[in-house]
Amino acid sequence: MSPKSPIDPVAADKAALRKAALDRRDELPAQDRAAAAEAIAARPLPVPVGAGTVVSGYMAIHSEIDPAPLMRRFVENGAGLALPVVQGRGKPLLFRAWAPGVPLTTAGFGLLEPGPEAPVVVPDVLLVPLAAFDRAGHRIGYGAGHYDMTLAALRAEKPVVAIGLAYASQEIVRVPANDRDARLDLVLTEAEIIDCR
């Protein structure tokens, strides 16, 4: 009989919190989700941008808040866009330049990504999807750790701003975190801008 592998209590707590948060998110009517994305984009941008600033967004899946309206605002203010590319489990994300209207390829889990012909770029601002968050800037993602690894690698090279996008209903009192979890600088919801710095 082989010994049981140790159970990570933080991971177990996150899994339960993730499921509850995703259930709440899924229950939001489609029109409320669309209105929340527009409300976030209607406010002044949360960080200064200009020519040369690269903002990494994402293509929303399932009931995620849609960053497209906010991404358009960044472009209107002179920023260039990028989208993340998953390189595989245990690896940080890669970012490729993208502009609205440019075709995307379908990758694993139905994610839409720029093709290999798109130039690799290093973002200054990252819009980060999430399942749940707290006011300290901790987030629960989908469990693979891609954004945690990516933020750690980017922040070792230069200052970057990580902005979580969420519905207000995704907030929880406290996200169980460990030293591998990268904190968000800001969280934008339809209700407010939360500065976690």
Automatic annotation (TrEMBL):
Pfam families on file: 5-FTHF_cyc-lig (PF01812)
Alphabetical list of Gene3D superfamilies matching this protein: NagB/RpiA/CoA transferase-like (3.40.50.10420)
Protein residues bound to ATP: 14-18, 139-147
Residues annotated as signal peptide: none
Record bears the keyword Magnesium: yes
Gene Ontology terms, MF aspect: 5-formyltetrahydrofolate cyclo-ligase activity; ATP binding; metal ion binding
Keywords associated with the record: ATP-binding, Ligase, Magnesium, Metal-binding, Nucleotide-binding
Reaction it catalyzes: (6S)-5-formyl-5,6,7,8-tetrahydrofolate + ATP = (6R)-5,10-methenyltetrahydrofolate + ADP + phosphate
EC number: 6.3.3.2
GO biological process, one term: folic acid-containing compound biosynthetic process
The protein's required cofactors: Mg(2+)
Binding positions (substrate): 59, 64
Domain of life according to the entry: Bacteria
Record family assignment: Belongs to the 5-formyltetrahydrofolate cyclo-ligase family.
Protein name (Swiss-Prot/TrEMBL): 5-formyltetrahydrofolate cyclo-ligase
Organism of derivation: Rhodoplanes elegans
